[in-house]
Amino acid sequence: MSNAQNWVVLKFGGTSVKSLADWRVISKRIDELREQGKRVFVVHSAVATISDLLDTLVTRAVSGDGEDELATIKARHLTLADELGVDGSVLLAPYFEELTRLRAGLSLTGDASPRLKARIMAQGELMATTLGQAWLAANGTASAWLDARDHLAAIPAGGARGYLACDCHHAHDDALLETLSGAAPVIVTQGFIARREDGDTALLGRGGSDTSASYFAAKLGAERIEIWTDVPGFFSADPRLTGAARQIRSLAYEEAQELASM
Ligand code: ASP
Ligand code: MG
Q1: Residue 5: pLDDT band with limits 50, 70, 90
Q2: Is the CB of 88 within 6 Å of ligand 1?
Q3: 208 Cα nearest atom in ligand 1
Q4: Residue 6 gets which letter from DSSP?
């Protein structure tokens, strides 16, 4: 089990990939790690609020609506592409087509199967990573885009869970390391999505991107995993709920775990 590839996994949430300023932060962290001789495996979520919009799109499409949500989702991504200076209309076309087709399908059948819901929700992460990796490449980061579903296999589960809240295999993955050994030093892939045994798309459940990053870190035998959020560390309480919340400067691992689970 050699770890010669020195992988560090970086995970960014939706609020950390929504603007050019966010991508500058990501690129700075990648550069620091590259200077230390690390290979960097970036896992990130859909752009902030997009997963909620996709969820609403599914609900509304079933009763023949959802065109407004679809338009908003497209506009958000085209605006971000413009801000990043990449060609959104070309890069995003396959995802827009897929969403248009799936929305129309749901409207016709009036039935949102977990299978179709998973496919629709997955587009959020696919679109965001496509734009992000294009920006990194255009700005001098030798990088490659990876479809997480090709390397994250869902553990079979019955019913909706098997599509919308799967667990995944995460044993050390020589095949993945082999694939990456000749690839670019920086990889960008999606959180939240995996592949079922039958080839369909599965989701890890809402907020599942942290878990995706952990799975990939285990598979790669990564040296480290960093979970980036837009909150600067641990607080004594949820700062959205009380102005009395204070940032905690130093915290033992066990205490952090306890706070996180509360
Ligand atoms: N985009 C997904 C969600 O909002 C996954 C994640 O953010 O972790 O639930
Ligand atoms: Mg999210």
Answers
A1: confident
A2: no
A3: 8
A4: -
Mean pLDDT for 181-205 is 98
Q: Which ligand is nearest to the CA of 208?
A: 1
Tell which one of 76, 117, 209, 211 to mutate to probe ligand 1, the residue whose CB is within 8 A of the most ligand atoms: 209
Pocket perturbation via mutation, ligand 1, pick of 17, 51, 55 by most ligand atoms within 8 A of CB: 51
14 close to ligand 1 (CB < 6 Angstrom): yes
Mean pLDDT of the chain: 94
Place 86 in a pLDDT band, splitting at 50, 70 and 90.
Answer: very high
pLDDT at 234 (0 to 100): 78
CA 217 → CA 61, 134, 193, 226, distances in Å? 37, 23, 15, 10
The tokens for 243 are 């102005």
Tokens of 10: 């970086």
Q: How many angstroms separate the Cα of 113 from the Cα of each of 51, 67, 118, 141? A: 17, 19, 9, 39
Q: What is the mean pLDDT of residues 129-146?
A: 98
Q: For ligand 1, say whether the CB of 193 is within 6 Å of any of its atoms.
A: no
Angle at 129 between CA 127 and CA 54, to 5 degrees: 35
Pairing mode, strands 143-146 and 186-190: parallel
pTM of the model: 0.91
Distance of CA 253 to the CA centre of its chain: 25
**Digit-coded pLDDT (tens) for 63-77:** 999 999 999 999 999
Q: Which two tokens stand for residue 87?
A: 């060609």
